Amino acid sequence: MKHSAITKSGKIDILVPLYLNHPSLYPIITEFFNSIPKKFNIIVCDDCSPLPLLPEWPVKYRNDTNKGFTANVNRLLSLSTADIMIVANDDLKFDNNLDWAYKTNGIYFPRDSASANLDIFGAIWAIDRKSFEKLGYLDEKLPHYGSDREYYQRAIKLGVPVVKISNVCVEHREGMTYKHTSHRA
Fold this sequence. Notes:
Layout: E1 12-18, H1 25-35, E2 41-46, E3 59-62, H2 69-79, E4 83-87, E5 91-93, E6 107-112, E7 124-127, H3 129-135, H4 144-157, E8 162-172
Parallel strand pairs: 1-2, 1-4, 2-3, 6-8
Antiparallel strand pairs: 4-7, 5-8, 6-7
């Protein structure tokens, strides 16, 4: 069992919704998993990838059918009892500077190298347990690229702080997973 980072709830779970649909993703996903600091508890759920997963990847859960990104994130959220960090598997790597995630009181998110919209999170974000319990799950009726925006607006409406960490940037190869298929968003 991995040791978890300390926060108000006692730990942070890094939740990774995974979908492997093209061989070009093998090195990206391997580099991604290798860059996650070992002090974090990693929970990965594969969304019924058409390609085999590598045995060294920390995948413990797998959907029997492809549910789509938002439903897979919600499944991961249901598996966590700690503070949460959600990370898309096409984020290239962590720089081991995750101090911002330890301070969560609301939703925190770093700059995303692929995002033109500086006020919306999506590829990587952290939320403390109390704020998650207030906001609940992502809306599965919305497509992948709408569920984070709706969650952001819901947080503001319910008074949950949403904080952009401007001095941290995550390298995000946006769309790497989806460019090879008509995978459900």
